[in-house]
Amino acid sequence: MTPKAEAVGPSSAEALAALHARCFPHGWTAREIGSLLNLPGCIGLACRVDGQFVALALFRQALDEAELLTLATEPDFRRRGLADIILTSGETRLCDQGVARIFLEVSEKNPAAAALYKRAGYGEIARRKDYYRDGSDARVLEKWLRKDGQTGP
Fold first, then answer.
1. Pairwise CA distance, residues 100 & 96, whole Å
2. Can you tell me whether residue 78 is helix, strand or coil?
C-alpha cells in the first residue's frame, strides 16, 4: 500500500523533529517545528510507514503565496516517491486555498532535491550566496499553481 500524506499538527512535533534530525545535519527541534505548526497559514504534512513518520513537509502560506519551509524523507525510505506524494499533496491543498505561487530554497549541494523540484515544475529565480551553515549557496525556486494544472503567472 502506498503511503498517503496526512495533515500533522503541533502534537506531532517531537516525532517530526526526530525525523528531521535524521535527515539534516542541523535538524529542527521539536520546539521550532511546534512553533511553526502553531502559526496561522502553516501546513504540516507527513507520510507514515508502519505507524512511523518517514517523510514530512512544512509549508507556510501568506495570502496568495506560499513557501516550502522543509521537505525531509527518512534516508532508508528515499527514492520511493514519498517526497513527490507530500509535495503534490501540499501544492494541491495550497492551490485549493488560493495560493498562486510557491517558493523554496534548495542547497546547491543537494542535487537529488534539486532534481525532484525540477521534475515537479519549479524553476530557479535567484541565488542566495553562502545561505546554509556549510557555506553553500541556496537556489531560490518558484512554481506557479493554477487549478487547471497549468503553470505560469
1. 10
2. coil
What is the bridge-based pairing of β-strands 65-73 and 101-107? parallel
Report the Cα 54 to chain-centroid distance in Å: 13
- 42: which strand partners? 60
C-alpha grid cell, residue 139: 537556489
Q: Which CATH class is domain 6-144?
A: alpha beta
Residues in the chain: 153
Give the residue ranges of DSSP H helices in the chain: 13-23, 30-38, 82-96, 111-119
Query: Choosing from 67, 74, 91, 105, which is the catalytic residue?
Result: 105
Exactly one of 67, 74, 91, 117 is catalytic; which is it? 117
The greatest distance separating any two alpha carbons of the chain, rounded to the nearest whole angstrom, comes to 42
pLDDT digits over 4-36, tens only?
999 999 999 999 999 999 999 889 999 999 999
Contact status, residue 73 vs residue 54, Cβ threshold 8 Å: yes
Using DSSP bridges, classify how beta strands 138-144 and 123-128 pair: parallel, antiparallel or unpaired.
Answer: antiparallel
Catalytic residue status for 105: yes
What is the DSSP pairing of strand 101-107 with strand 138-144? antiparallel
pTM of the model: 0.90
Q: 8: helix, coil or strand?
A: strand
